[in-house]
Amino acid sequence: xxxxxxxxxxxxxxxxxxxxxxxxxxxxxxxxxxxxxxxxxxxxxxxxxxxxxxxxxxxxxxxxxxxxxxxxxxxxxxxxxxxxxxxxxxxxxxxxxxxxxxxxxxxxxxxxxxxxxxxxxxxxxxxxxxxxxxxxxxxxxxxxxxxxxxxxxxxxxxxxxxxxxxxxxxxxxxxxxxxxxxxxxxxxxxxxxxxxxxxxxxxxxxxxxxxxxxxxxxxxxxxxxxxxxxxxxxxxxxxxxxxxxxxxxxxxxxxxxxxxxxxxxxxxxxxxxxxxxxxxxxxxxxxxxxxxxxxxxxxxxxx
Length: 303
What we know:
There is one protein chain. The chain has a single domain, classed as Sandwich (Jelly Rolls). The chain has one helix and 26 strands. It has 303 residues and is mostly beta strands. Keywords: Iron, Metal-binding. Its cofactor is Fe cation. Residues 23-118 form the Pirin N-terminal domain.
């Protein structure tokens, strides 16, 4: 018998400028939700051609990017290049250091997606960087018996269907859920993991432990209490549109989080070391000295 999780808080992700000309709705990494271990940041981004995220560094975390609309290109100082189309994901482990650029493809008009930053366990902070891509066509899907709910099982498990593989070092579940009017789903979650649900579109009723369900509007993040092992989501029969929810859970890390921009460590001393290493192109950032991405050149080099 599953126990429904209570809602800890729900709040609107407000738009803000980020990168060079991009806008994001940030709902983790903000004053009222600084961190939710192992999660450091969640951005719902909207990038037009001519804007983007030119050359910038990372250390100590992983980024997971899900593209919802358009196409985005990426390039880094190790020679890795690629392109994400709508429905694709990229899992990037920064480890000891990476400098890369993420820019919209120039033949698109609107590029929308989600980017989640996940903390790395302390013993993996200085691992070698890596990329792992997951194409939309590779993601297992499951539909409820009544056909009113579809789940893309990016990572984890839903309705008896497992994801293709674990793509991040830190254990996380990522579920892309679409609920049509009249649809309802009870989703199990790993016990004691932190979990949240971001509503991309539509109006959703979320179970709230033993309390009355809470109705959540688009662009709101719903953070759940750790106690309990399931959440139930539904959309009213008479709703004028289907809902789409990005449901995420992750195994908490028992370690301090010290963050300075794109550097995430467990101590102030390690932050200072990361800044020094980047500025001196050493200890993981050797290739940053004379590197400039091709895709970021039109915007100049940004650090």
